[in-house]
Amino acid sequence: MAVRVQEADFDLGAEVRSLTAGRTDIGAVVTFTGTVRGEARCAPISAMALEHYPGMTEAELDRVEAEARARWPLAASLVVHRVGALRPGDNIVLVVTASAHRHAAFEAAEFLMDYLKTRAPFWKKETGVDGTGTWVDARESDEAAEAKWREAPAPGSPLDPGRFVGRPIMAVLAELRRSVPLIQYVKIEDDEFLKLVEQGLYFQATANSGVIDQYRMHVKDSGEYFRAGRDTLGAFADLRTIDEFEARHGAAEDTVPSVRISTRPPTLAGRRYRIAGSIVSALHDDDGNLVSLHVEPARPHERP
């Protein structure tokens, strides 16, 4: 992981080779190179100058690169930003991100570039062909792009879990890390889980598939999860007991037995239903109160 601020140009190929040499844990490398355009705001320019505060700028870039590493499982990263006098066609900035998976590398690179365009402590002056110089602020579109990384939902805020089914679990992890403050990745034998404690959700990829094929929504607060938001629960939001669930959705197709696992409390019992193309297991406590709903898409031969 490295950050450099320099006047000299950089060599993209050499930088990537240096960053990845001898690494066998990297499956994806994403690079972004920014160059000086020959026009700005519909007018031609002859030069650009970038200024910075030595020491302060590098420290701030180190901080945001560390944030990228915290959000995405990066194996390596590099930010090189030029300063001083530049001409149209010159390189300005290089961002390189490397990860075992492409989704993390792409999204981390986008995050770093959105930050560099709006929040990095550089001051840019563009000189027109008539010699007039203009100091440039970040554009509204760049501000909006950077703002999306700072938006975080409150506990119990709505997420549509169904839209993540069928997607690679590591890609979903990378996406949700932008906005979900507390998210845990866990692997148990052949299954992978993403646990969103404050949103009352977890996603599961089974049988070493690496692809989310089911999820669970928590209908009530438990010792581990908050209750999922009303918009997340959708049509199930107003159901509180297993009897209410059955009155709404008809008789169950099967039961879900409680299972005892060594060193852990027994799992909840429940009933299994076929609803709108999905298999929904409604799990309840001993008093018949709904605790969670486990949802998995029905297999093609199971669909009505």
Describe what this molecule looks like in 3D:
The chain has 304 residues and is of the alpha+beta class. It has two domains: 2-150, Aldehyde Oxidoreductase, domain 3, CATH 3.90.1170.40; 161-302, no CATH class. The protein is built from seven helices and 17 strands. It has helices at residues 12-20, 56-71, 102-118, 140-147, 169-176, 230-233, 242-249, and strands at residues 2-6, 28-35, 39-40, 43-52, 74-82, 84-86, 91-99, 122-128, 133-136, 184-188, 191-196, 201-205, 214-218, 254-256, 269-275, 278-284, 290-297. The strands form three sheets. It has an eight-stranded antiparallel β-sheet, with helices on one face. Strands 3, 4, 6, 8 and 9 form a five-stranded antiparallel β-sheet that branches. Strands 1-5-7-2 form a four-stranded mixed β-sheet, with helices on both faces. β11 (191-196) and β12 form a beta hairpin. α2 runs antiparallel to α3 (102-118) and α3 packs across α4. The longest helix has 17 residues, at 102-118. The N and C termini lie far apart (52 Å). 26% of the residues are buried. The model is unreliable at 151-157 and 300-304 (pLDDT under 50).
